[in-house]
Amino acid sequence: MLGRRGGGRGEPVTTWQKVGAVAVGIFAGYLLGVAIMETVDMFYATPVIPTAVTLDNNAGQGSGATKIGGKTIHSVLTSNGSPYQNFQGRIMYGTYKLVQRMPGGEKLTGFTRILHRMKPDELMDEIPTFRANPLHPQCDEWCDFPVADRPNAVKQWIDAAAKDPSMIKGAWILLLECDYVWMRPVQAPDAYDPTANGFQFMFDYIMPDHPNAVPFMVKLSGGRVDPNKIPHSGPAPVLIRYTELAALTPDWERVTADIEADPEAVKQLDWVREMYAWDIAVALHNVTLATETPPHSRLIAQPPHDLVLGDAAMCHYTWGALYFENKKEIWRWEKRDYTSREVALKVPLLIMPPQPWKDGWVLQDNLPVTRELHETLTAMIGQMNKAIIQLPDLSNSPQRT
């Protein structure tokens, strides 16, 4: 199967390609961490943003509208509102607000969480949210692949923005997932420069030219796309112009639906099938996006798979990191330990990696914990705690209905 351990997409799955599969977390509890204090007022201050933007001519151009700066970014997060994703999403939005205060953070001018859920959730007042009606209402409680609703939810947001252009507050759209940690602002080129391209991340387990995938790539694209020309990426993280996103999303939605209706495609493309649908849609519309790899990706690094942040603005913690010394676990960070509503509403501080670094520590797959990886994980968990300490306690909030 062409699958992977899902980054906020569901429970971990075994993949046939070697991408460093990790152990599933088996315990959770109240955790202590080291946090860096900042004032709540500064954290929740709202930056000045443009109030309107037209949606033609890339973005921000047209009569009667404020022309948004060409390097501004409107970030978009999708979620089904489960406690698992809300725990991650609150931390992600918290770290986003932290980097808005950094030099270059003023270019982060808009944020929208697209919630594909039948009813509102507890985060509606904390994170700017657009609620989309899901195709699979059962996912409000549980379903095996909630990401199937993602393209349709994005399309609903695009359709709403077409009617109300003020919803778009950046010349670029940055598509995100919940399990990202902002470390510094993303730097975008000038969207009004016709020679400037957006960019995306290269996932080495997305292989449209693999013999097992080629028949599905041909079928799902109607034979219109050479599998060798389909990018090895996915819908997040991606920096893309609004008009490019609006043009390809109907095909992203259609191909996703075609996959879901084909049991063999579901089996072969597995937990990354909606990512393949995105890549096919990008190829069908000839959208030019630079596909970048660590350490030169401007978007994400994935510790512990990647040892350093490199050029990335964010960390993606799709894999857990468990430290062992003499075969005894001495520290763990595993997002699958945090699935309850309680930890989503009152996010606990995380245990920091042990200090100082010691030669001889190994990860769960027996690879060494290098000094540079340890520093990267320490910085990531520290940034998460810096955001967590400023998150409001929502544990007394009534459950939305």
From TrEMBL:
This protein's record includes keyword ATP-binding: no
InterPro entries for this protein: HPAT-like, HPAT/SRGT1-like
Keywords (A to Z) from UniProt: Glycosyltransferase, Membrane, Transferase, Transmembrane, Transmembrane helix
GO cellular component, one term: membrane
Primary location class: membrane
Highest taxon listed in the record's lineage: Eukaryota
Domain Hydroxyproline O-arabinosyltransferase-like stretches: 74-348
A Gene Ontology molecular function term of the record: glycosyltransferase activity
Membrane topology: Single-pass membrane protein
Transmembrane regions listed in the UniProt entry: 21-44
Subcellular location: Membrane
Record's protein name: Hydroxyproline O-arabinosyltransferase-like domain-containing protein
Gene source species: Volvox reticuliferus
